[in-house]
Fold these 4 entries.
Entry 1:
Amino acid sequence: MSTSESTPSLHFIQTIIEEDRAKGKHEGRVQTRFPPEPNGYLHIGHAKSICLNFGLAQQYGGKCNLRFDDTNPVKEDIEYIRSIEEDVAWLGFQWDGLYYASDYFEQLYEWALQLIKAGKAYVCDLDADAVREHRGTLTAPGKISPYRERTVEENLDLFDRMRRGEFPDGSRTLRARVDVPPYPPMGHPNLNMRDPVMYRILHATHPHAGDKWCIYPMYDWAHGQSDSIEKITHSICTLEFENHRPLYDWYLDQLGIFHPQQIEFARLNLSYTVMSKRKLLELVREKYVQGWDDPRMPTICGLRRRGYTPESIRKFCERIGVSKFNGTIEMSWLEDSLREDLNKRALRVMAVLKPLKVVIENYPEGQVEELEAVNNPEDATAGTRKVPFTRELFIEQDDFREDPPRDFFRLAPGREVRLRWGYFLKCNSVIKNERGEVVELRCTYDPTTRGGNAPDGRKVKGTIHWVSASHALDAEVRLYDHLFLKANPEEVPEGQSYHVNLNPNSLVVLKGCKLEPGLASATSGNRYQFERQGYFCADAVDSKPGALVFNRTVSLRDTWAKIEKAQQQPGKKKG
């Protein structure tokens, strides 16, 4: 192993922390936080932030809080709060403190009074559209509000009356009075510094604070001060907050309170999906998916229901690293992290998704053998299991070709294959229905080949899986694929939305699948490799004893599927 493999290099946030500790900054203390807004379910992008914040705290012997930045009661819900707690815990992290920005509303209000008294904040009567218009653009300065020069006494009186509920929603705001020489008022090149709104009037019940407040702080006002209250040392945010950092610093400097350092990193963008909370909510509300936990969704609860493990997601987040440059990560990176994890832990079982009946004509009727099967060749401690073998079996329809192409090594008329953990099997005849479809195979087996080897040394090229027809469990199997057809769902013709790129085959439901009997008690916490099919788990919502439903978590690499696809393309030579 090379030195670079054994001692991975530090990413830029670790370098900052290392330098801070070396200088004795904050007495070497590291305090981080994960601060979600409870206005939706967490997705894989949040998982990167969770792993980063909690991971840094663990690495440096520090602490990490879970804080809900709950400043907008109209969009927030207790359902989201509980789901966030569940997701963080499921990923394997335990917060050192559980806080709400709304718990700090009284202190934030007092600090707002401090800025008013210092001439750094004023009550503005412009409505939201007028505030936006007065803000200016990236190329033109804004206009000063006609209410910017109100006296301290008038501002204090109006702000108090705002709190007491005397004014209707949207009629007044409290704005910061930002003067940063050499820029003129409302002329700062950063639009966030042009007298930003600190409070708006909103008569709404808050999911945590109830009806105590009718004025609510804006995120930029609440966030930095909440960090300060919690003595956060390194406030780690995604890159879209980089332009907000001057305002973050300005508020803290004006108040003269503990000043955390805000550090921005690139958010996670993943191919074949969307990561916008607004778009995810739209997919749910317009029923393009079956809920936040739909296994096609990039939400953590969706990934959990699909069968992802917390270990695989943590490994994925570790592999993609931390940088300051935005980019898109291929979905295959996430899937490969999962395959690697499940390959070590998932029990192997046999399941036939598209059954084709096989009758072994020279096998005794009524006889049942128990064949020994290895549970996981990657884990010797997983042991073995017994699978029943009988005269009538089910195999996959795709494992038989009446007229096989050159590179097809599975079952065909007159051809012999190996049954997994069982015997050599030879197809002698084919039975079809009135539509000419193959519905049954008549075969013979070689009783001397139990275990998969022939005493005479003859070889077969194909090995197929099977289940005993009389012992098989019926199940519904859901095959999940990418939610979108294009790696970038936003790549659409002008005038169209990302909806046109939704994959109509992102979910294929198979009924009447046949599973080996040991899966009767499968739960969502168990992951299995259906041999030669992929990794699956019982659905946490719909699967019940006697009515099993399995989700495909991720497929296996299928060389034959690639061959067939290539053969179907024009100009390709067929075998």
Note: The first strand starts at residue 31 and ends at 34.
Entry 2:
Amino acid sequence: MIKKWLFLSLTLLVFHHWGICQVSIRDSSINVLLVGLGYGHYLPAGDMADRFGNNSMVVGNVMFKTKSQWLYGFDGTFIFSNNVNQKDLFKNIETTKGGIIGSDGKLADVRKYERGYTITFNGGYLFSKKKPNPNSGFVAVAGVGFMQHKIRIETIGNTVPALSKEYRKGYDRLSNGLVLHQYFGYQYMGNKHLINFFAGIDIFEGFTAGRRSYNFDIMTADNSSRTDILIGLRAGWYLPLYKKHPKKYTSIKQHKVAEPQKKKFIKRLRTTLRLVVMNDDTFEEKFSLRLTPLNVFVVMGTLMLTLITLTTYLIAFTSLREYIPGYADVSMKRKLVNMSLATDSLAQKIETQNKYLANLNFIVSGTLPVDKIKDTAATVAIYDSIRVLQKSTEDSLLRMKIEGQDKFDIAMDGDEGSQSGIAGFYFFTPLKGTITSVFDTRKKHYGVDIVAPPDAVIKAVLDGTVIVSDFTSETGHTLAIQHRNDLISFYKHNSVLLKKPGDFVKAGDVIAIIGNSGEFTTGPHLHFELWYNGTAVNPVDYIKF
């Protein structure tokens, strides 16, 4: 009470000449800029529920409320959670027991989180009563914007080369796209700046798609369309920013305050009009709404933009486009082309079957089909003009060389001695680099060690089938390929294996990434072995590194 009297006394002391007092926001609706900060908890639905669990958001928004109770502004949210439901994300680098071995040969601590954000531009309306406070009431807001989310991967100590730097992008499932936003709640703005809050139901519908060009776990890109829905509760605090001395005043001395000069056009746009619904018999006012031409223009523009966005989405992303005359359906065209090709193939098969049945009928009836009788007289050869060709010296030498060779010799290029049967294979170089350790059976080193730059790719030397793709404590991430003619190639100490047992690979296909895994490793390199008929052979004799 003492504070109120003190404030009133100071006001009268300053404005004693005019006798002016400020109108409280409790008495009238005002233009105010609302800066808010809040928190929300959300439940996922649609495709979002397959990838993530419950999550939270930190909400920041800026909203402008007009005297006519219209709301305009934008929201920004940060999405975070520890609930990731994506299964088999690391299946190509996990052991049979589901663990991931780091470069030190120990189980690595790999953690997954949900991270994302939304940015939306919103418009809405404040449904309030004239008393006690026209600046508080129920709020309905709708907007459109952008959504992005991904799986954040962290390795404690960064001990897994397959999950470092750029390789994480092959697992994070980055997705983004258009998002629609709706909010229904209540906001309270007190007479003072201290108590101003909001709370309500918040809904997001994101229409996103995968943006990574390659995912390591599924060995391809995932660009399919997604419908990511979040439904939750949002609450927070507003900081209202408005002038301490509004333009509207009351005067004890009936002193008229001069208004600033404005242009006629702008003044007309900001002229306040009232839309009233009355009972025609009793003239009782049922409903009234204060409007300005500027607000009507902005609201109609926002509504038209929203309708255009929704219509575009319905046409582009739903099956309703099939009912629009002349709208091209890519999937339908693809089906028609496939059906046309299948029909053509069936027609050829039917024609072949008819010819086959016709021949059977001829055979059963004892007659043979005669298509055309050749005139052999016209094709009789005249042997009188044939000249005897003379043998050249080069031809005679070539004949002597070929006839002198052993017709049962399987050695390539006429090499003398018994040579391995794999000498005729054309090997693809698995890795371009420097050989640091050679083939030596006395030291039980049955292959060669090749050093190359970090993150270099390793390729298959021949066509074959992967028979081993696993982790061992001695040789780390190891991959073996079975080729024809009892030939097997081994690739050891890798950081990442890109193939699994049973996969068929061609010569030159990328199968692994160079690494430093296993107890027997001496640094980042590839240990490569060739085994023929159960015996190790020197790879340098057949491959140029």
Note: Confidence is low (pLDDT under 50) at residues 1-24, 245-259, 406-420.
Entry 3:
Amino acid sequence: MVATIARSASPANKDALEDRLNVYRKLKRIRLFEERLAVLFQEGKVYGTAHPCVGQEATAVGALIDLRKEDYVAGTHRSHGHCIAKGADLGRMMMELLGREDGYCGGKGGSMHIAALDLNMLGCNGIVAGGIPHVAGAAMAAQLRGEDRVGIGFLGDGAANQGLLYETLNLAAIWKIPLIVVCENNQYALSARYHETQATPDIATKAAGFGMPSEVVDGMDVDAVRAAVGKAIARARRGDGPSFIECKTYRFLGHSLRNDRPKRAPEEIASWKARDPVAKNRALLADDHGLGSAAVDAIDAEESKAIEVAVKVAEAAADPTRDKLLAGIYCDDPYEQTPPPRSAADEKRQISYAQALNEALMAEMERDSSIIVFGEDVGEGGGVFGVTTGLQAKYGAARCRDTPISEQAITGLGVGLALGGARPVVEIQFMDIMTLAVDQLVNQAAKIRYMLGGKPTVPMVLRSPLGAGIRLAAQHSQSLEAWYMHVPGLTVVMPSTPYDAKGLLTSAIRSPNPIIFLEHKQLYFLSGPVPAEHYTLPIGKADVKREGKDVTVVATGAMVRKALQVARKLGREGISMEVVDPVTLSPLDIDTIIASVRKTGRLVVAHEACRFGGPGGEIVAAVVEHAFKDLKAPPQRVGAPFTPVPYNQALELAYIPDEEQIAAAVQATLR
């Protein structure tokens, strides 16, 4: 049921005048900041673009004025007001908008990605609705720790058309996450009018469908917003779950400082400006408290001076130097090697690849209570390939959770959990389906640390099976690892043996970086020696699986086993083949590969991804760049044909690279 809330009085337990003065100061500060920003943009000192919130100040102040410092906030691309209302430093904000090194994000985020992590302002987002699962995840992390924190996520009416929002609302409602979503319905997306893009008069009616309180308030009335959000905060702190509040508001300016669309009728603008929250609250100071114009003018002057001081500080601040370009992409990984014993008993202990992964998860969840595993059917069902079997029985449904089929939301929630201090391990059932979560991986998990100046960490693992061979056809059989190798900020790991799987998953879970952990479906049920003890293996370090002197074969995933079989066969013919498993595809240990090629003088790369555009192209290019003079023959690539994976068994077998193709490529380098 959607309720419409009228304006209410300020809380009775506060001094009314002081409270009204505090509200007015914040409203005026935001207004002056945005107006000064527009001048700086016209002067060319703020570049790119910026999205002012002039007219919408009441939603920011009303929603955040009673929030605690430890509570989380996620903004939009129009979030200067949210940052200021949360208490952000004006000087550091101005420095960020001018691209200065001492800005909140080191000059790397700018207007759309500004954050104040010291205030738990998790960052603003250029992808509409992109930050909603982050604030939900951060609030959930606090919830799991038993902390009394809530999260508020802002979005605009345009973002109300994003499926990610509704996936997240559903999860928040199911798990009773202490989340408040505030929709600033300012009547327009970029230029599309609200009534042209929505099938319902109120966005809140959609949220009500998830069984949560959903209210419509006058977004120009700071007291109405404050009352509605206050009620939602109290509900969240009681453990009763999320709420949705739609604030009907208006932006007085265009979409951005670079784009003044849409063209609006003067009478429309005038009707909304008559409800200006800054002017309205100035009038309340006079009408309700008898404060004269001179006193309010003095407040205005103080706020204006504070803005000018911030501008001067920002203009005098230094730009980041060129050596900062590559800083802040990855965290330094404090890798602590815990090597396994190499006893005869360990060599005799044979378990499957899936069991090895399970052992790593079991031991890490025992070691670290902040680890939470979730995904579709990972609980009682143990996952499609049995990797999470027994986790829920041992650690409970709170730490091993089944999710709805909502790949965007569960990935985004993983990002938020990581930002909130947890260590999520997310399972996506098939790599093909990871494409539904690409935004949260590529635009969020990979970039957040860099955009926010190298400050936050995103210690998140996303596990997924890849590859063909079990007749699941085109949408459940792809090898798309090259997509993610291309994304700075992501680490891509692909173990080929049970031994590697256990040690690398342990290291991945402990890493402070977002890691895509790929498991080939054909390997799950293959067994190999794995020590019972817990151990780690280094991420970013290739492994020479077999030494040789005539030709180097770099193989990944399921191709490693095939390459080793070829090496044994050709060895009987007098050909000495060295097999190198990169293990980590990004960052790629090219040094180990080049050292091998310099020894053998020949290179073959084998992977199951399509040959065109696959990982082999990057490996060959790097070898040619660094060791061209050492090559005795042109490098060869073995990969799948440029076609979707077929269903027919014979066609699928023809699709998957085999031992004969690897052997033929090796022979080609020896001619």
Note: The two ends are 76 Å apart (CA to CA).
Entry 4:
Amino acid sequence: MSVSRRTFLKGTVAGVAGLGVVPVFRHIALTQDKIPGDGPVRYVNSSCAICTNKCVFRGQVVNGVIRRLEPEPDFPKSRGMMCARGNAGATTPYDPDRLKFPLIRTGKRGEGKWKKVSWDEAFAYIAEKTNTLVKEEGGNRATIAFASSEGTYQEHYWNQFREVFGSPNSLRHPTLCLSSNIRGFQSVFGTYPNADVANSRYIILAGADRAEAFMTPDTIDMFNKSMPGRKLIYLDPRFTKTAAKADKWFPIKPGTDMAFALAMLNVIIGENLYDKAFVREHCTGFEELAAHVTQYTPEWAQGETGIEASEIRTVAREFAQTPGAVFYPGRRSSWLRDDVQTRRAIAMVNAVTGSFDRPGGLIPNISIPMKGYFYEPAWYSNPRPRLEEEDVMFLNPRDGSWIAWRDRAIKGDPYRIRGMFINKQNVIDSVPDRNKTFELFDKLDLIVTIDTMMSDTAWYSDVVLPESNYLERFDPPYGLGGIEPVIVLRQPLIAPMYDTRPCFDIVKGLAAHFEDEDGDTLDTYFSGTVEEHAEMFVSGLPGAMEMLREKGFYTDGRSAVMGEYRSGKKTVATPSKKIELYSEDFAGRGLDPMPVYRRPEEPGKGQFRFLVGRHAIHTHSMTAAFPELNWHMPENSLWINAAKAREMGIRSGDLVVAQNRSGAEVRIKAQVTEGIRPDCVYFAHGFGSLSQGKPLVYGKGATQAAILESHFEPVSGNACMHETFVEIRKA
């Protein structure tokens, strides 16, 4: 039978429609209306807001409409490239589903009934409700919590509002990401260093899916073919795109990365392959570490990791004998409750081989100094402490610890939380155990959310305040540290299209409706404009603002000078002023002074360990509903090992139910694959939205937040993203 092109295309569209992709065409049609024809062209340099990289781009504007975003070739950190996510940002101002004006809920939470209001009405409503709650709690301003997300450039204004309001309860994203990673490396090196990937000749990655996470410039440098002979070793229970690029992929048993690192130390020290001069001059605790790791042989590690002892020995020897080798520090979200110690073990592999402060190794970050943002603090009598300050050993008071804090808030211990102000953080979809988040929300009398889209969190809020799109607003300069530090700027390509405001205007407007204990309105603590602040930030850097306006970034050409720690010009910021292989600080706090391996919990009969991970096209729930990206992956699916799937009678496309140990469950289509261990399952984040304001992902697939159990690591407060076990069955 022959098939004509017309018949083929007709069938193809029908097939796509059957997969539920038709809404994408509606969105693209609506956004296409904004695409200009020929006309005057102008370029505006600015910086991206789609992920934490903040890459600088050249925005092409035709007839007052954004046509496209192009990479800024001179921006050092993006190496002249721009990823799919950044490109897709060009149409976000024209998304028909974006938030356009302030809203106050009129129905039940999650019912989707809203009233359009003016900004003054919204501010007055928020202030009246908030002041009533504070009064009912005896003047305890800590009863109002504040959540925010990094990367907006204006987050410091949000923090200022929280501080002058008088609440200590701040919650940010790091304890849902890499707090344990940072803490582990800091305990050894006194800093969280960068890997000089561009000059590394041997790289070990433990779960850091660089090919899909797009943390430039590391990703670009890592896969640069101009480094002949470079070797990439990748440990991950899942065959990711990074695994496909690696020289060797080891499907390591989840939670055993520490065993692998300790066995490497056993070989490197036991065979005298360590850098003796570096260890002698710059490290402390080596004798203790050498004695400690004798028990962790490669043969022992084989039983823990599933990686053959001979392979572990080979990797350890190659690593120690290759100049410019580095065991990459992250960014991998927390594995288990011993994650800080796992990161310490990885840091120590780098330390004993002298892979610090040298080309191809770990390099302490530097920055271009800017003048700080200063404001007069407000003082209140009888301030209350954070809820969870006693639950986490190294608690960052600005970041908080989401899981520990939420547990306390649900219990009302040591006091009640009555309201929450949320700035650009999709709490419902990002914090593990969504049922517990709803339990928290049920106890709150007021939820206010600032966002650009109707996220799940906004959908369940009482008031939604629309922030201007990042292509419509001016944000103050933001410093990006690293080996090649820069300062970046965000400036508008177009004027705001709707009744939206930038964060500074929102918090200043809110502040005008609140008073401190002296009766002064809180807006008196906010002075100047964002533009004036920007000028002040870089006033000590001649020509900086001119370059920022023209190029979107500023650099004075500086880069990290290697060898300054080795020469003694600089010292590491540990208590001993040396690289600590044995931590007296940890010992004094009752923690293991050296990493001690404890076998992770095994999945029970019929259980799988649930993994989280990245996807090359999406930045979690932020981009899954982008029309220009959604077509590529309109729905997520559950990876399950082919052999296990056969045993269970599951085929790709079958609807399955995943249920965790607390009884929470999701329904999702299966994807049968050889690319995951038999004891694990996985699905990408960003789907299964509850918000009808995001129709492209509403009810499509599943969200990790619904299935992840709530556990946290008590040293750093990080959520343990891999302590979840699920059972799988056909729906």
Note: Confidence is low (pLDDT under 50) at residues 1-32.
